[in-house]
C-alpha cells in the first residue's frame, strides 16, 4: 500500500513534467519576432551590414531556421533586394550578419531593412521585424566623384529640394551609350548608364537641373565619373646599380589606366630581404619608362625587388632579382 502510493505519486510528477514540456514546446514554436541589432551603412562604398541575434535560447531544442532579409526603397515602398541565409538555432545567442552592396547609392533615397525567419521543420515563420531605416541625403547628384572600371553598369541619381521640380537629368557618357531614367520618389530620380565607356581625363559629368515652381530659380546638381582600368602588371621591370649608392629600377606601365593625378597609379618598391619599402613619387619619366631609385644597403649584395602598383580599381605587381658585386 505504502509502495503503491509512492509510485502513483512519482507517476503523477512524471506526467506533470511531460505535460509541462509539451506545453513549453508548443508555446516555444510561436516564433518570436526578431529584431535588428545593428545596421551599419557605408555611404561611400554603398555597402550595408546587418547584424541580429538568432534568438535560439527561446527554444527548448535545436531548430533549423531560414532567415529572410528584405531591403525596400522608393515611394510607395518596393523590394530592392531579398536574400536568405540558413542557420541552426542551437540555444545559444549567436550573432548573425549579412552584407549587401547596393547599385543605387544610399544617398539617393531612404532604404529600409527588415528580417524574419522560418522554422523549416515546422513550416512556420515569424513576423517581420520592424523596418530599420537608412536615410538618404537632402539634395545633390550621386555618387560623388566615383572611379569605376570600364564597362560597369552605373546608376546615378538626382535628389532635389522640396518645392523644386526636376527638368533635366543627363550623363556625359550617354551620347555614346545607352541610358534610361527611373523615378524613385517625388524628389529623386535615377539615371542608369549601361556599360560605361572610358572617360576623358577630367572625367564625365553627370548633372541635373531643377527649378522652383514659384520664381523659376534654377538649381544645378552635378558630379563627375572617372572610368578607367586597374593597373596592368608592370612590364620589363629592370634594376641596375647606378653607382655605389643607388640602384635604379625602370619599367613600363603596360595598358594605360586612363586615370590621372591622385587617381593615377601609385608605385611602391619593396625589397624582400631587407623589408625596405620605398614610395616611388613622381615615378614617371618621359613617355614610356617609369623609374624609382633604391639605396644600396651596406653588407647586402642580393636584392629581391617587388614593384607594387595601386589605384582605386585594384593592384598588381612584378618582381626581379639583382646581385651586385
Ligand atoms: C554620400 O554623401 C556623402 C556626403 O553627404 C559623401 O561623403 C559620400 O561620398 C556620398 N556617397 C556617394 C557614394 O556618393
Ligand atoms: C609600402 O608602403 C606603403 C605606404 O606606406 C603601403 O601602403 C604598402 O602597403 C607597403 N607595402 C608593403 C608590402 O609593406
Automatic annotation (TrEMBL):
Residues 1-28 form the signal peptide. Residues 233-325 form the Fibronectin type-III domain. Keywords: Signal. SUPFAM superfamilies: Fibronectin type III. PROSITE patterns: FN3 (PS50853). InterPro entries: FN3_dom, FN3_sf, Ig-like_fold, LIF-R-like_Ig-like, LIFR_D2. This is Leukemia inhibitory factor receptor-like.
Amino acid at each position: 500500500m505504502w509502495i503503491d502510493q509512492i509510485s502513483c505519486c512519482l507517476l503523477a510528477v512524471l506526467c506533470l513534467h511531460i505535460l509541462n514540456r509539451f506545453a513549453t514546446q508548443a508555446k516555444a514554436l510561436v516564433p518570436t519576432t526578431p529584431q535588428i541589432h545593428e545596421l551599419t551603412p557605408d555611404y561611400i562604398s554603398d555597402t550595408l551590414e546587418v547584424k541580429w541575434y538568432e534568438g535560439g535560447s527561446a527554444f527548448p531544442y535545436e531548430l533549423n531556421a531560414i532567415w529572410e532579409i528584405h531591403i525596400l526603397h522608393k515611394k510607395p515602398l518596393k523590394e530592392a533586394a531579398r536574400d536568405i541565409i540558413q542557420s541552426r538555432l542551437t540555444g545559444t545567442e549567436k550573432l548573425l550578419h549579412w552584407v549587401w552592396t547596393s547599385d543605387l547609392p544610399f544617398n539617393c533615397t531612404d532604404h529600409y531593412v527588415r528580417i524574419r525567419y522560418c522554422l523549416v521543420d515546422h513550416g512556420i515563420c515569424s513576423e517581420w521585424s520592424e523596418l530599420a531605416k537608412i536615410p538618404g541625403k537632402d539634395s545633390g547628384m550621386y555618387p560623388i566623384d566615383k572611379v569605376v572600371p570600364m564597362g560597369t553598369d552605373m546608376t546615378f541619381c538626382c535628389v532635389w529640394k522640396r518645392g523644386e521640380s526636376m527638368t533635366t537629368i543627363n550623363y556625359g557618357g550617354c551620347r555614346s551609350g545607352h541610358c534610361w531614367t527611373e523615378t524613385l520618389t517625388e524628389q529623386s530620380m535615377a539615371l542608369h548608364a549601361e556599360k560605361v565607356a572610358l572617360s576623358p581625363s577630367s572625367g564625365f559629368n553627370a548633372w541635373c537641373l531643377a527649378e522652383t515652381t514659384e520664381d523659376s530659380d534654377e538649381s544645378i546638381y552635378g558630379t563627375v565619373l572617372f572610368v578607367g582600368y586597374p593597373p596592368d602588371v608592370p612590364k620589363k621591370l629592370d634594376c641596375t646599380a647606378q653607382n655605389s649608392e643607388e640602384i635604379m629600377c625602370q619599367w613600363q606601365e603596360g595598358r594605360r589606366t586612363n586615370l590621372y593625378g591622385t587617381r593615377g597609379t601609385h608605385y611602391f618598391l619593396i625589397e624582400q630581404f631587407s623589408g625596405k619599402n620605398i614610395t616611388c613619387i613622381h615615378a614617371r619619366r618621359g613617355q614610356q619608362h617609369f623609374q624609382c631609385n633604391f639605396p644600396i644597403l651596406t653588407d647586402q649584395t642580393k636584392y629581391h625587388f617587388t614593384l607594387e602598383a595601386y589605384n582605386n580599381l585594384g593592384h598588381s605587381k612584378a618582381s626581379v632579382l639583382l646581385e651586385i658585386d
